[in-house]
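Bench notes, bay 3.
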Amino acid sequence: MSISQTQSAKNLINEIPLGFIVDSAWFTLRGIATKSIHHYVQQGWIERVVRGVYRRPLPARGNGNNRDLPWQTVLLSLQHLMGYNVHLGAHGALDINGSSKYAEFGDSQHVHFYGHAPSWIRHLHANRKIIIHNATMFNNSPLGIIEHAEIYYSHDWAEETWQWAFNVSRPERAILELIDMLPNKTTFEYVKHFFNWLDWIKPDLMMDLLKICRSAKVKRLFFVYMELFRPEWMKDLNPHQIDFGKGHRSLVPNGIFDSTYHVSFPKGFINPIYYDGRKV
């Protein structure tokens, strides 16, 4: 490699913030062959994370670079460097929007990305397990996804340097994404804690999301929670404009069956709230 080629390669690598990742497709779009990528690895300019994914190394400190990628770095790399249409959703988005209110209830083991994510994400060693969901529940609509001005960091050198905005679900969309995980991937009790703080909901946006939501289960359970908590903004929602589908949804054995929304939920998961005249 000539001096000019070396300088061109280094200029390219400098487009990647320290600690951030790119995939083979990122190099291919810039006319870089696989052989050249291997050369960059040999020179120590980038390091292989998993097959087809590369990280610009952090400055060596202490015991060396941590192989576990911060999930924030993964998300920002996907959105800003590689251009994947992915956003942070569910409880992670509620955490961001609600700050410390949810800290005591937060799921410290998982983070949920929604959209068209590359398959190699499942093989990454991140500091939280990244769960990928498609966005078909909302017909791939961007409704309720916003650009958040800041992300919270783990004081990693790279993340202190690069603080980009990122795409995240607003609370209206995030709570529906969270409900979608019931009953197998989260619990009714866990979802309950978030409803305690949903006091900044925009009813018009909530209605628009419910109208395009394709999951009858999600829409039915959302209104069951509404009946339980009765927030101030509930009066601005019109369930008669929502398509709840047909048939019953028996989600839990021996649960309480809601005769209005035709869905079941566990006994005693919220106390001491009365539902339809009964203590549940």
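Next record in the batch:
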Amino acid sequence: MKRYSKIISTVVKISLSVMLFVNLVGCSSSEKRDVSDPHFFKFEYCDDGTAIVVDYAAENKGAITIPSEVEYEYDAKTYSVTSIGENAFSGCSGLTSIEIPDSVTSIGERAFSGCSGLTSIEIPDSVTNIGFWAFEDCSGLTSIEIPDSVTSIDDAFQRCSGLISIKIPDSVTSIREAFSGCSGLTSIEIPDSVTRIGAWAFQNCSGLTSIEIPDSVTDIEDGAFRGCSGLTSIEIPDSVMRIEADAFRGCSGLTSIEIPDSVTYIRMGAFSGCSNLTSIEIPDGVEKIETSTFEGCDRLGNVKLGSGVTSIEESAFVNCSRLRNVEIPGSIMNIDVSAFVDCSDLEKVTIGGVEVEMWYIETDSWKEFLRGSY
């Protein structure tokens, strides 16, 4: 039976098992009791002998330790604290540090959301589950070490703007939206165990200057590095096959990037707004230059498209005002009339070794020109 109780404590101890996407599941039934004293914590007691921290008085401040065990006053039994429930410490802006005991295996959704005064927290090796947004908006948190028990990091540290370093264990295989908005993060080491840089994983990490992607990664997903304006260089390994939509959009500090031959898909807007990118070479395995892929790359001067490219879609290079040299393979079948709109320095392109003036591209008559109809 679920039972709620209050417990007097000045220090709260918590032990967690980390896996950032699992929702905390409570007990099967409950008996609720009022908790009005601001010095009391609220626990949920379960039939299996475990207890869940479900609430804490937001007005309390300073360092706390979550106990590994609590005694329920109505049955005099001792319960092991194994979980930190959803929203348990949400909005407790006065908390500065929290000690979590080794008994804790899961941290619920938004468990510490908005704890802006929190500067340090140690997550024990016992934690396997970390819920969505568990530490979102913990702007005072400067560093965190994730234990080896965690396999996935999803959404957990969004907008932790004070976070400057983080250690990701080798047990993690995917990262999704985990560090979005962590503008203070300057560097991060991604372990070889990671196979996907998930959607919006590092979005708007404007302080990030460089990052090394391990050769275990096969996919860089939607918006993974979007808005990382401080990023000046990045090395994409030969293992990567797909660069998804908006993956590097708005990376205005990026001056060069080498796309390996392994890449076969580059989705729309992937490099849009990379305003300091000066040249790009597309590998032979890519078939389409999709909509807005290089839109607004206004320092882009040279582009070489691989032999496999058959289509350049609408607005692919729109507003690339300094573009002067574009090499297009003879395999090309479609060039949208808007592909090079507002490329003011571009007077002609080369298609299969033949120079073609932009007028023929803009009027969709380049095929006739190549056939000798003009």
